[in-house]
Amino acid sequence: MTDPHGVKPAPGPDQPPIPVRLVTFNVHHGVGSDRRHDLPRLAKVLAAADADVICLQEVDRHFGDRSEDVDQALLLSRALDMQLAWGPAIDEQRPGDDRRKQYGNALLSRLPVLISDVHPLPGSGEPRSALRTLVELDGGALWVTTTHLTTRSPAERAEQVAVLRALHTEPMATGVVVGDLNAAPDAPELAALRADFADAWELAPERDDQARWRFWQREEGLTHPARSPHVRIDQVWVTPGITVAGARVLDDAGASDHLPLAVDLLVPSGV
């Protein structure tokens, strides 16, 4: 909004909050419930979400036959005309090839990405990482950390959550942590996250999911497995001051083994 002279008000606490639609989605390297790799199908699901920021897990870049050796992150970014921030968890040199074999987290954004950095997470087994970005809003900014925690043990997840919490220091007070956490929101290993963040699904006054005929599961926000979800492991956590206007589990159209979660946020102006 501008005044009669065309001057835009300065950002600040007296200005209305800034709406941001965010989606988090474990895309299973583009392989759907039919076991086919179908990136155009995935792009259609993401486009239909009409999100400002999309956080993806299990994304391949030249990983091999399972994803037709394509650069999924780049192709999705181009298909949706969104900026790309990339956070590999696996990063290997391919023999006789200058392209690297990578797998990890990606952030797609309609909004300018000001900062992007990657943080390895502790633990054994499959490497894990967190992608931390600063997204510029119209009159503010939002820190977004995207991650995919281990399946190995609660103890290792607790170590990883401690790192996630440490990434959001005082100057980064306004932010979200999102992704496939491989644990229920009330799991003991997420205690460090609950100390500074709140579960967006629980905060949302309006909620919708894909329970369909399973009426006893309505408004539980279950996301995995996609065909018959019974756990809520795909989550969005927000810092104090961010309002959650709504949360919806979306139809994945068979594009993955998870369902996407969309949240409508209201971010304070001037932070």
TrEMBL record:
GO biological process: GPI anchor biosynthetic process
Alphabetical list of InterPro entries matching this protein: Endo/exonu/phosph_ase_sf, Endo/exonuclease/phosphatase, GPI-anchor_lipid_remodeler
GO MF terms, alphabetically ordered: endonuclease activity; exonuclease activity
SUPFAM superfamilies associated with the record: DNase I-like (SSF56219)
Residue intervals of the Endonuclease/exonuclease/phosphatase domain: 23-258
Keywords recorded for this protein, A-Z: Endonuclease, Exonuclease, Hydrolase, Nuclease
Domain of life the protein comes from: Bacteria
Keyword Transmembrane helix among record annotations: no
One GO cellular component term noted in the UniProt record for this chain: membrane
Any Pfam family hit: Exo_endo_phos
PANTHER family: CALCOFLUOR WHITE HYPERSENSITIVE PROTEIN PRECURSOR, ENDONUCLEASE_EXONUCLEASE_PHOSPHATASE DOMAIN-CONTAINING PROTEIN
Record protein name field: Metal-dependent hydrolase, endonuclease/exonuclease/phosphatase family
Species assigned in the record: Geodermatophilus obscurus
